[in-house]
Amino acid sequence: MAHQHGPSVEPASASGRYIKHLAAAFVIGFSFMVLEFVVGFLTNSLAVLSDAAHMLTDIFGVGVALLAIVLAKRTTPTSTRTFGMYRGEVFSALINALLLFGVAGFVLFEAIRRFQDPPEVSGLPVLLVALAGMAANAVAFVLLRTGAKESLNLRGAYLEVLADLVASFGVLISGAVTLLTGWRYADPIVGVGIALFVLPRVITLARRSLRILLQHAPERIDVDEVATKLEAIGGVNDVHDLHVWTLTSGMEVASAHIAVDKDAHGTGVLRAAQRVLADDYHIEHATLQIESCDAARRCDHLTW
């Protein structure tokens, strides 16, 4: 007999609580992106243009993140979409990672080309746009910082804003060096520095997104340990077909078959197993099948 423990209505995802913050970050980013493109083309600065291109991916990424949240909030679970659209947020994070990877690769390529013949860059406009960028990104950074701890989707947007903040600081240095010394290599060097700063964070974000999409167990949970704790419950003979995965950030779910002895009380075992998952692993949504040892042996014939 199968027993399910969990809310009848799917909980709101973590990022849904920060939708206004994400929208504000979108408006700030869009406004500053336009400014950077204008200044970048007028000054011929690779540092500014690379940051503007990076900002363009941010705008697209934040827009996708917003769309994913809206879909998750408005699309309720149905008979065909039993988990709603929560996974859309994870896809958004992966798209952001791919976009950032592409931008970093382009900047590295362009910087290598410019090292051969660095163009003249006007330092003062670069310096001013960098100061404006730091202020804009600092506001967006504060808006998204708390939500990034709870949502992978928001963390993708947060990492992009963080990269932009560092990039603006790099552009500030580039503008100052160019203005004071006229050294043309400052601009491509900063461009390379921005790309190298972004890449490790992109890889981490992509890896975390793929773990969820491939339904790996959350990194914080030892599945063998979960099985051991469930088997330690009185009356439990065996635990098999145990699966633990993440639906979206902050929403872990589990399923398992629990074989019990003949004289075991099924409801008592079920409640004890639910307490173990909820108290020790913060898994509130679990589908647990309590079955006899004879029924458990039939599971051995499953091919996957």
TrEMBL record:
It holds the Pfam family ZT_dimer. InterPro entries: Cation_efflux (IPR002524), Cation_efflux_CTD (IPR027470), Cation_efflux_CTD_sf (IPR036837), Cation_efflux_TM (IPR058533), Cation_efflux_TMD_sf (IPR027469), CDF/SLC30A (IPR050681). The chain crosses the membrane at residues 21-42, 54-72, 93-112, 124-144, 156-183, 189-206. Keywords: Ion transport, Membrane, Transmembrane, Transmembrane helix, Transport. It is a multi-pass membrane protein. SUPFAM superfamilies: Cation efflux protein cytoplasmic domain-like, Cation efflux protein transmembrane domain-like. Belongs to the cation diffusion facilitator (CDF) transporter (TC 2.A.4) family. SLC30A subfamily. NCBIfam families: CDF. This is Cation diffusion facilitator family transporter. It comes from Haloechinothrix salitolerans.
